[in-house]
Amino acid sequence: xxxxxxxxxxxxxxxxxxxxxxxxxxxASPTGWSLDIILQAYLLVLIPAAALCHxxxxxxxxxxxxxxxxxxxxxxxLASAYQLTVxxxxxxxxxxxxxxxxxxxxVILGHAAAIGAFTITWLRARTHKAKPKPIDLSNSPRLAWxxxxxxxxxxxxxxxxxxxxxxxxxxxRSAFQAGLAANGAIPSFGSMYFLSNAGAIILPAMAILLRxxxxxxxxxALVLSVALAFVATNPLIGxxxxxxxxxxxxxxxxxxxxxxxxxxxxxxxxxxxxxxxxDLLRGDGTGxxxxxxxxxxxxxxxxxxxxxxxxxxxxxxxxxxxxxISRADLAIAPFLRWVPILSDMVQGHASGPVIATSTGMGYTxxxxxxxxxxxxxGAGLAVLxxxxxxxxxxxxxxxxxxxGALTEVPVAALLFIVLRGSLYEVLGYVLLxxxxxxxxxxxxxxxxxxxxxxxxxxx
Length: 459
Fold this sequence. Notes:
Layout: H1 3-23, H2 35-57, H3 63-86, H4 97-128, H5 141-165, H6 173-182, H7 189-212, H8 219-232, H9 240-254, H10 257-260, H11 263-273, H12 296-299, H13 307-316, H14 327-336, H15 351-358, H16 370-396, H17 402-418, H18 423-458
């Protein structure tokens, strides 16, 4: 093992030990949970902790795979353990032991499916595939043209959207939301909002990665894209997850693959100490009054860490929704929402508010983790299908191909909002990333074909 990997192992082992040991100290818990809940709580912490360590130490690091385990460890592992230890959920839900135990098994089932699919894909690639050749994009004019056009188009859309919103872009969440409502009737305004946000997370990161591989992208276009991407996702619009996803994407694109191995550690520390108080920048008086470092036992029991509670609430319904919206509606809504002529049909069909309303909550801007959505739509079978698909997908988000190089970093950044849910809100971001990656890959393929034909003609 190299010195760097040894240092990684020591740092991650120490960090995870400091976080996990207090989290699973059920001996001090006054709630007296049953043995199966305690053992499963251990698994919800130990499985992602071990998988994260394995992923950052792997010979070929996959950032998206590490982010999956980072999010799972913090939001479903450590957070649920601390909440069970103190006997209180963020929204004050009173859950039966049966529902809590079932929710834990849903998470474990998803993890098992993801691990199985990822491992099978990795073993097949190792057995049947030669070592990938370095990607050289120094002579790819079509790809360079396509990327530049995409960057400038995103810049133009962001400028138009920002001009329409005016000072609401820097006046806090309330002013921003009011601006969205006031301008909603403008044709294509919703599409501009989506493209400015989604493009901010996807396009600058892809362009930076391609330029590092030799693609001739004009630096002014790239700098303009990054600057306007920050404007589109700036903290004053009130979404720390969007801002964080943009920062993760750009940072990961800028640094080396080896340096990316350290990113999950930094993200974990931020999540368990200061994340809840970063809403200070909302600027509307509803956030924290100052940035403060808190102990994980305090941090991880706040409203930001409601993922396990919302999963347990979903489980407690046993498929019976107290609403006119059916599960079929919830299944198609994440797709139809992004089709302009059909989006009105599924307006408001997000699973988070539906579960919140069905379980008697007054506040509906809540998490709906992907495990809960899968269980809601198709119980254990859907959980297996969804997380098997995720395992396969993340295994292919590697740097061995151009498509893998294009998707690894944006997908890793988007996982922070995808895993939190609901899919109704975030599926379009992932679909856009995949479409852009496919288009860029095809442009590169055309460049390669043109070069082959040129060489044949010369011979």
